[in-house]
Amino acid sequence: MIKKDLGWRFENSYVELPNTLLSKLKPTPVKYPELIIFNYELSKALGLDISGVSENELASIFSGNELPTGSETIAQAYAGHQFGHFTILGDGRALMLGEHITKDNKRLDIQFKGSGLTPYSRNADGRASLDSMLREYLISECVYNLGIPTTRSLSVVKTGENVIRETNLDGGILTRVASSHIRVGTFQFALVSQNQQNLKPLFDYTIKRHYPNLINSTSAPLKFLENVLDKQIDLICNWMRVGFIHGVMNTDNMTISGETIDYGPCAFMDRYDPNTVFSSIDNYGRYSFFNQPRIAKWNLERFAESLLPLISKDSEKSIEKATEVLEEFSDKYKKKWLTMMKGKLGLFGDEKHDEQLIFDLLNWMHKNEVDYTNTFCHLMNELSNDNEVYRDKYFIEWRKKWKDRTELNNAFANKSLEMMKVSNPLVIPRNHLVEDVLKDATKNQDLFKMRELLSVVRKPREHMNLLRKYQSLPKKESKKYVTYCGT
Ligand code: AMP
Ligand code: MG
Fold first, then answer.
1. Spacing, Cα 121 to ligand 1 middle (Å)
2. In this predicted structure, what is the pLDDT of residue 3?
């Protein structure tokens, strides 16, 4: 037995929902749990106290071999459109420990990923590879530090058991922290199961937990749709801001909280190409960089369909009202996207040719295969590596137009620059570095590079000498980067 309670304050409300929405079960113990990485900063923010707890004990806890007092482990049921096809899913390899209440009274889901079979595992093994769990840890922490809503990662434990994929791999378990795991797909499941009887309880629960301001609203379901739509627009704009490609925007991977979830085949784009896809199975570019807003809208339409019975008893009326909300997506997105891009370029106020100015730059980057992140660093004078591409005649002309534009509307150079610095990361987790970091972490269990990358992303301006390395581009021949689902 572990001597010490880590300070968990579990208060599990999801288990009270109708039992078709979840299954109660325990994680499958693992043979030789070994702690690989632990997020001390997050643990502190959660109010946990791990002083006097050994690494072995942490490994036991965060592998699920020793469950903390107060946890009630459950797998959640959900459905989802995967690449456009509707399927009944559920946590096939994840298990929620419970909802932890932080000192400032935030309710957070604590969940294992890779913890063994569940009733929703279908033909798969319920396990995850160490490599993919470390990847989720790394990228989710980078996304968080880039100021984007996301689930977070508390630890990764090596299981001491193999998982069979294309080859035998080390198994791993991630502990994920999320404001909840309620997805668009959870509502889709409630719509198609139990004669829709669970839709209202799920809705009431979700409103209470995430949108309490809507509790007394006369049109709460519609407002809920609108709120989720707004959050998703914010999220996608953030992804577009930093060149993040989620890679598998199935409806089960879209949270109603607006947090990024499920770091499978995601990656950051280097050379600007709106059609970029990294996922090995995304043959038609459904989840390409450019398509992300379109897919978000498509997913929200599926979400709206799930809410129709709650919006009005009259189905025609429901459709009409939901459609009105959905139709706002394009204008809202465009407005937010434009504001975001103007932030990246330090432009104040609105000018007639702003959009043209933005597209001219994007088109130039695309045509010349220029790095997205570094171009904005160049404009901020924050690029540590010289690159002759920025001596291109067309670009110099564009830069002159841009410079003139930044001076309009009472903007001073330093104000513009400040705005740009808030919007533009100096570093992103570049694919060639991520591969290198993960190779060291899994093959040699050497976490030095992973920690360095995380520390650079955390405080990008404090490591000027390291910036050169993190702003360096991959060699041309490593152009086709491939990522995988379900590893
Ligand atoms: P994902 O692509 O990670 O969102 O997973 C889609 C669905 O497949 C979810 O229901 C997962 O829980 C399930 N799943 C993925 N990998 C496994 C696995 N190794 N064992 C069981 N279920 C899995
Ligand atoms: Mg998923």
1. 7
2. 64
